[in-house]
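User: hey, got a sec? need 3-hexulose-6-phosphate synthase folded
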Amino acid sequence: MKLQFAMDTVTTEAALELAAAAAPHVDILELGTPLIKAAGLSAVTAIKKAHPDKIVFADLKTMDAGELEADIAFSAGADLVTVLGLAGDSTIIGAVKAAKKHGKGIVADLIGVPDKAKRAKEVVALGVDFVEMHAGLDEQAEDGFTFSTLLDDGAASGVAFSVAGGINISTIASVQQSGAEVAVAGSAIYSAPDVGAAAAELRAAIV
Ligand SMILES: O=C(CO)[C@H](O)[C@H](O)COP(=O)(O)O
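Assistant: Yep! Here you go:
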């Protein structure tokens, strides 16, 4: 299982600092949606330039203009770009077209999708590389939120999936047991007093 670090910060400088500390221990460096909205796609270019050996993930969460948005992110240096599973099929097909043009990949983020296992199969048939079983920061704070649902949905989907939303040192083993290809951790790393040590600890928990 790969480890992805979601850098939910808002400046390129902060992201470069986080990436420098965590990079030795992670496979994928994610530029979170707030970072891309605040700093623009130049942040993607800066992270790829600093870490050419890492998979750079641009969390665009595209809902429309799939081909155009994915194209500009790939041109900026992204290796993987997200489109929302809630988007229409034509948006997802457009994003996949841009990925094929660049020799890169699309991830469908299933945040907010009611039946994640069903939509996962549909979007993989449309050509996305894998799906993200995702509970967003707001959903995690809602009463009654249960992390294990994401793992059940992933296992039920029968397709390649990542898991995002509340992964920490207590839950990462269960993510691996669910069959996930990628574990996405944000605050468990960037909020830690020692970012590098937190990333290393998560990496060590993956067997
Ligand atoms: O994409 C995101 C929010 O939309 C986050 O990066 C992702 O959910 C990881 O979050 P966490 O800090 O809970 O690990």
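Quick note: Residues 6, 8, 32-33, 59, 134, 136-137, 140, 164-167, 184-188 surround ribulose-5-phosphate (CB under 6 Å). Let me know if you need anything else on 3-hexulose-6-phosphate synthase.
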